[in-house]
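Hi all, posting the design record for the shared folder.

TITLE: backbone redesign
STEP: 1 of 1
STRUCTURE INPUT:
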């Protein structure tokens, strides 16, 4: 008898990394896909199908749609061993966990925000970052780090683009904003799921700008290196804004073809981010020699 679809049945557990459409998501499967996005880009993950009950109608017809969120832990099966087509049949109790959480905590679940294990952190701490506003502080922090690394061909352009993207997340780049998706999005980057969990593990439920900037820089140099490459490879402001918007998992970060993703520059959000970036570009200039040294994005 020849092999048939379903002959090499395998169970798996994984985590949702992207909602593609009403029928598909992308899943990193534990033990199959590398934990780090730098080792296997999200766009290279196979499309996972989501099953529905028989009462759910025809999937993809508009009568049925999955309700899976990014960072939800899911389980399912693959009916073949060659392509490992994932088919999701359920969600594991206790969503909002990431691959990085699994990998850095010995495979144990790590509590989400609100857990008493994440203490509230003083919001009024002293920040030795020059600037008269959060926008200026963010610009100067990023500009100084880029110059220190030597990773940017134009620190002014790249720092302005980053600020433009963040200005759509919170007005004035406000580290105390908690809202967004189901009231869980946290701080200047509106972190969610496993990324927010990582922030809390390092700093507690912090609402300090310096903490959040340090964590953002840590991500750019570790778990979000691919986004950093997109951002810093740009030589003009629109491309730099598009590059950093991928770090934000922005609404305008959309599928552009089979297996490829990019920024929809016609999206209203992208136009707003670019407008803010031009405003920062035309109004900010670096403070080259701050009176007090400030953090360079190092988290221990």
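Okay, here is what came back for every position:
SEQUENCE:
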């Amino acid at each position: 008898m020849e092999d048939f679809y379903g002959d090499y049945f395998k169970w798996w557990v994984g985590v949702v990394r992207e909602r593609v459409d009403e029928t598909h998501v992308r899943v990193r499967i534990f033990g199959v896909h590398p934990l780090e996005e730098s080792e296997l880009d999200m766009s290279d993950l196979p499309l996972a199908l989501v099953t529905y009950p028989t009462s759910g109608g025809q999937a993809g017809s508009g009568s049925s749609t999955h309700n899976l969120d990014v960072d939800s832990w899911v389980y399912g099966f693959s009916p073949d061993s060659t392509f490992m087509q994932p088919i999701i049949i359920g969600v594991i109790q206790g969503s909002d966990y990431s691959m990085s959480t699994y990998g850095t905590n010995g495979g144990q679940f790590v509590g989400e925000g609100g857990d008493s294990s994440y203490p509230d952190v003083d919001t009024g701490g002293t920040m030795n970052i020059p600037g008269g506003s959060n926008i200026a502080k963010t610009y100067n922090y990023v500009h100084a780090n880029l110059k220190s690394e030597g990773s940017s061909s134009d620190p002014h352009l790249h720092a302005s683009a980053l600020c433009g993207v963040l200005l759509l997340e919170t007005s004035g780049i406000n580290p105390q904003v908690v809202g967004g998706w189901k009231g869980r999005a946290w701080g200047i980057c509106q972190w969610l799921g496993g990324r927010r969990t990582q922030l809390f593990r390092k700093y507690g439920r912090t609402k300090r700008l310096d903490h959040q900037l340090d964590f953002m820089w840590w991500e750019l140099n570790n778990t979000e290196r691919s986004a950093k490459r997109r951002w810093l490879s740009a030589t003009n402001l629109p491309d730099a804004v598009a590059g950093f918007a991928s770090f934000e998992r922005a609404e305008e970060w959309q599928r552009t073809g089979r297996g490829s993703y990019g920024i929809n520059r016609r999206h209203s959000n992208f136009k707003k981010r670019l407008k803010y970036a031009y405003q920062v570009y035309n109004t900010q200039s670096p403070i080259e020699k701050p009176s007090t040294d400030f953090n360079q994005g190092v988290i221990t």
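COMMENT: Residues 134-149 form the longest helix (16 residues).
Let me know if anyone wants the other runs.
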